[in-house]
Amino acid sequence: MSGRTPIEAAKARMEATFARWTRETTLAEMRADFDAALGGAEAPPSRPVEVAGMPGAWFGPEPDPASGQGAILYIHGGGYQVGSIRSHRGLMHRLATAAGLPLLAFDYRLAPEHRHPAALDDCLAAWRWLLAQGHAPGRVALAGDSAGAALALATMLRAKREGEALPGAAALLSPWLDLEATGESLVTRAGLDPMTPREKLLAMARIYLGRGGDPRDPLASPIHGDFAGLPPTVVHVGDHEAILSDSETFAARARAAGVEVTLEVWPEMIHHFQIFPELPEAGRSLARIGAFLHDRIG
């Protein structure tokens, strides 16, 4: 429809995708729809690689750990049930380009076939694999969007708990950190964002955790984590996001724990708006995040 702003067009595209899903829609069909809706026709250059037994891909410059070059380990979002390298390849390519750094992506296991902590186990395995390739932990950044941002944060919390090395920086895009969905913005931003209505979040959380899963486990809901000792972190979130409170609460608690946190709230933007290449704000956000990562680890 003519006359739509870029953000209105992006919202309409996602609403149309979700409207096609019924009780008869299979999970495989949903995953294919999600990949197509977000990945679109973008096919940026990438280099396939096996990451700890998982399908993976490098974006951006060739990795060269022997030179001391930095690298980004990126964890895609998708509510723990959808999403892949394909759905996020454009976003990951643009972030690698903005940072001037190689970016490693991988396809972790998804629910409901594999419930918590399978995805987190895979993320920790990818972190360990990257370090085994010779990358110094302080020259690596963990990054992710939505559920992937939660996995990035949970990976750091678990590595810290197990006495392992932490990355030199982190970038969280629209992080979904509270599986109980208790944030105030779920009320104040209700109806503004088609991606994250509260009932949808709670349904995805139940599927991810399974029967008896604890939504207050810090490795499932990292909002409850002990953030002391975590690296400098940048957080970008849209002001229209229903889960805006997750970012604000994390930033406040992490700063209280002594973590350097840069939080940017983007007016009128929706959940993981950076994935929509047509949005001018997406390009500006990735440029700022890329500059932060380049400064910290590049």
UniProtKB/TrEMBL annotation:
The keyword Repeat does not apply. Belongs to the 'GDXG' lipolytic enzyme family. The active site is at 146. This is Acetyl esterase/lipase. The keyword Glycoprotein does not apply. Keywords: Hydrolase. Residues 72-274 form the Alpha/beta hydrolase fold-3 domain. It comes from Albimonas pacifica. It comes from the Bacteria.
